Amino acid sequence: MNGKYTVIISKDHKFKYHDEKKLKSDFEPLTKRVQMKFEEFVDKMKNWKEGEERYYFQQVLDNSVGVSVVQDFVKFNWDWFRDKTSKNNWGPLTSNLLLIAMEGNVTPCHYDEQQNFYAQLRGYKRIMLFKPSQFENLYPHPVHHPYDRQTQIDFENPDYEKFPRFKNLSGFETIIEPGEVLYIPMYWFHHVESLIQADYTMSINFWYKAPPTGQIVYPLKDHQKVAIMRNVEKMLREALGDPDDIGPLLRTIIEGRYIV
Predict the structure, then answer these.
(1) pTM above 0.85?
(2) Which of 85, 189, 191, 216 is surrounded by the most beta carbons within 10 Å?
(3) pLDDT single digits (tens) 203-225
(4) Where would I find the beta strands (DSSP E) of the chain?
(5) What is the DSSP string of 50-89?
(6) Interval 25-68: pLDDT, tens
């Protein structure tokens, strides 16, 4: 692998993604994105000491990664993926991501807006999954926030006074190992941790467009409710201009009309 690749750097073991398009002057991200040669990244992992910054290789598998890697990717037996996506009437593959993580790296709880196949190549990962129905128990950041789609809660040190419904959270837990593929449905929250059984873990994410909506059947399903909430937030952000006006407006609607 020649050239430079995307590596995320964090001051601790948590790698909370931020949307760079939504950054404001008063917002300081917890991580930073750099371009690094692969040999440099490997050297950083090998020589890492407790207390130092951590690294997470996150590179799209496209022509930038080198001819040999692209050829291996193209020659991959896609029959299993084609069969699953065809049966579920999904749209096309939109993106992929090669993930190489140091042991103990954590991707905090978040959800995606596309269907996701999570393929494990090396090492083990612990993944906690939560249905879209757990939305109110996970307190995700507002849509306009750089941490959109991610919970505000620190799972390792939850603030129950600020987020009391977190006590009601329920979900699923699994450990995936090399050769396994985990399906993560769109709008399902997932919290991912690289375990210490290996010096590093390697995975590939495959994201697919959602299937056509078709006829909407009422009552709405939980993931459809999440989509509606996102669209309402976006609409109010555009209409009001100031995102800080969204909360008071919604509270006025609720407290003025729906509390009896």
Answers:
(1) yes
(2) 189
(3) 999 999 998 887 889 999 999 99
(4) 4-10, 31-37, 54-59, 93-102, 106-110, 115-122, 125-130, 172-176, 181-184, 189-194, 200-208
(5) TTS-EEEEEE--SGGG-HHHHHHHHHS--HHHHHHHHHTT
(6) 889 999 999 999 999 999 999 999 999 999 999 999 987 787 88
